[in-house]
């Protein structure tokens, strides 16, 4: 039994180490997506930025996000300010351990954390 516990702890440690090595913010964070484009690609610039501005290619679109907010309230306030700058399609997207999830999945994650 002790060996199995050790194996589980070692697997969890390796998974967390992998997350940290890739520079992924662990846990739930909210980012503000500022654009999704088919024919516009800024990915060549992203190598010189930190994790506060990121791009990804998903569903054949180049998507760009800003910020890593631990709370939805701050993410929504940032989104509202971005919209005031003229980026009307900005919206909040949640990530768990570096993977985009739905708002329902984010709510379920928060519910489990509070239990």
Report on the structure:
The chain is of the alpha+beta class. The chain has three helices and five strands. Strands 2-3-1-4-5 form a five-stranded antiparallel sheet. A hairpin with a 2-residue loop joins strand 4 (91-96) and strand 5 (99-100). The chain is globular.
Summarize the structure in short.
The protein contains three helices and five strands; from the N terminus they run H-E-E-E-H-E-E-H. It has 115 residues and is an alpha+beta fold.
Task: Name the features.
115 residues, globular, alpha+beta, 5 strands, five-stranded antiparallel sheet, 29% strand
Tell me, briefly, the overall form.
globular
Low-confidence stretches: none
Structural class category: alpha+beta
Strand order of the largest sheet: 2-3-1-4-5
Radius of gyration computed on alpha carbons: 17 Å
Number of helices: 3
The biggest sheet, with number of strands, parallel, antiparallel or mixed sense and barrel status, is: 5 strands, antiparallel
The percent range for helix content is: 25-40%
List the helices and strands and how they pair.
Blueprint: H1 2-21, E1 28-37, E2 53-58, E3 61-69, H2 72-84, E4 91-96, E5 99-100, H3 103-114
Antiparallel strand pairs: 1-3, 1-4, 2-3, 4-5
């Amino acid at each position: 039994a002790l060996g199995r516990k050790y194996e589980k702890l070692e697997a969890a440690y390796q998974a967390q180490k992998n997350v940290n090595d890739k520079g992924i913010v662990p846990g739930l964070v909210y980012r503000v997506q500022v654009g999704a484009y088919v024919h516009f690609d800024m990915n060549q610039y992203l190598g010189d930025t930190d994790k506060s501005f990121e791009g990804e290619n998903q569903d054949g679109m180049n998507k760009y996000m800003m910020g890593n907010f631990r709370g939805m309230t701050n993410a929504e306030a940032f989104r509202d300010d971005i919209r005031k700058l003229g980026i009307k399609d900005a919206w909040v997207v949640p990530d768990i351990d570096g993977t985009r999830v739905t708002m329902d999945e984010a709510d379920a994650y928060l519910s489990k954390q509070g239990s």
